[in-house]
Amino acid sequence: MENKICSSCGSTKFHEATDYIPLKPTKGSFQGAHKIFSFCMDCGIVDSIRIENTEIFQNKD
């Protein structure tokens, strides 16, 4: 992970984790994509959220 500095406390210790509920398209898909959170290990502020497998959200016309 790149060197980040927490905007809240100035720490450089970050970690990544996923949520247990996948993000799903609103129209009838059973596939889901995990949300990956990057957060400060000292104060807990979330630095970023990204989605894995964004292909499931693209239109398949």
Domains, number: 1
**How would you write the strand order of the largest sheet?**
1-2-3
DSSP strand content: 25-35%
The radius of gyration over CA amounts to: 15 Å
What is the straight-line distance between the termini?
A: 37 Å
Query: What is the total tally of β strands?
Result: 3
For the residues shown, what is the average pLDDT?
Answer: 88
How is the biggest beta sheet arranged? 3 strands, antiparallel
User: Helix coverage percent of residues?
Assistant: under 10%
The shape, in one word, is: elongated
Low-confidence segments: none
- If helices are DSSP runs of H or I spanning 4 or more residues, what is the number of helices? 0
Structure characterization notes:
The protein has no helices and three strands. By secondary structure, the chain is mainly β. The chain has one domain. Strands 1-2-3 form a three-stranded antiparallel sheet, with no helix packed on it. A hairpin with a 5-residue loop joins strand 2 and strand 3. The N and C termini lie far apart (37 Å). The model has no long low-confidence stretch (mean pLDDT 88).
